[in-house]
């Protein structure tokens, strides 16, 4: 049976926070954060802004279409008939996104405040993961991050079906503001192979570990497979920060995480190349990492 108790971590904890975060990344590849520092009022405002932008006419949302898969505006399609999303593909370029959608001054203010708060939280996570791994430094300093706003158009016909099919994330970390009123997120327990519910907790934020974190940790972290299911015919929103990777350099395991018991598992990985391989070869469940393994075992 799937284990009970996906970790819930108090981010105000002083002693041992880094070790607790690393343990969650290793054993589950996901955890939920409380006392994370992002005001609940700002979270509510951001959800309202996301809903209003996703309710814009199709011709306006089309201004955010991007040629690269997984970026820009993603409309409902035959493969994902209940899902659409908008993204700010580089949070440092949020002005361009707002301009394209004719965002109001209020919408812009909320987006800017949310990006700063969630990016600051990501920075704290990066520093604590370094600390918990016995390293020093600011792991995510200068890394590219993406904000994605998702809408699930659930209806009676969608109950029991997938909003998003099973996958891992091609990222280092994914910080999720899920819908406090509509559940559906499920993760795979790496020990049993069964699905465990990752239900929302009001005011909290969820974290998924992605493929790039598994490579960086030299295979220690679990790149968790997950999916979103429809359990009731209610519209579901979520807002996600993807911590993608460094700009201009490849990701590889620090030398401190490589030794005789833990030989280097992966070659240095270019983030854009990795995403391209995942997409073109349709390897969306973490198996694309096998193509980046070292020849030594």
TrEMBL record:
Entry superkingdom: Eukaryota
Protein name: Uncharacterized protein
Organism: Arctium lappa
Taxonomic classification: Eukaryota, Viridiplantae, Streptophyta, Embryophyta, Tracheophyta
């Amino acid at each position: 049976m799937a284990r009970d108790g996906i970790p819930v971590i108090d981010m105000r904890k002083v002693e041992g926070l880094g070790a607790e975060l690393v343990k969650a990344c290793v054993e589950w590849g996901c955890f939920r954060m409380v006392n994370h520092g992002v005001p609940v009022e700002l979270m509510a405002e951001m959800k309202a802004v996301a809903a209003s932008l996703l309710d814009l006419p199709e011709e306006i949302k089309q201004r955010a279409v991007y040629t690269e898969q997984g970026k820009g505006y993603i409309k409902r399609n035959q493969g994902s008939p209940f899902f659409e999303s908008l993204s700010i593909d580089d949070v440092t370029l949020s002005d361009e996104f707002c301009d394209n959608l004719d965002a109001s001054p209020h919408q812009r203010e909320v987006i800017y405040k949310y990006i700063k708060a969630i990016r600051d939280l990501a920075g704290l996570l990066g520093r604590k993961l370094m600390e918990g791994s016995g390293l020093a430094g600011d792991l995510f300093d200068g890394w590219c991050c993406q904000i994605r706003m998702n809408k699930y158009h659930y209806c009676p016909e969608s109950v029991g079906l997938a909003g998003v099919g099973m996958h891992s994330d091609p990222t280092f970390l994914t910080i999720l503001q899920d819908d406090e009123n509509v559940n559906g997120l499920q993760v795979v327990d790496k020990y049993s192979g069964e699905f465990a519910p990752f239900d929302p907790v009001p005011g909290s934020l969820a974290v998924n570990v992605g493929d790039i974190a598994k490579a960086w940790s030299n295979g220690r972290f679990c790149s968790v497979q997950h999916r979103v299911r429809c359990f009731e015919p209610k519209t579901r929103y979520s807002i996600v920060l993807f911590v993608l990777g460094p700009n201009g350099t490849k990701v590889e395991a620090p030398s401190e995480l490589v030794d005789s018991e833990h030989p280097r598992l992966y070659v240095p990985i270019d983030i854009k190349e990795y995403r391209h391989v995942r997409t073109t070869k349709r390897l969306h469940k973490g198996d694309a990492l096998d193509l980046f393994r070292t020849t030594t075992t």
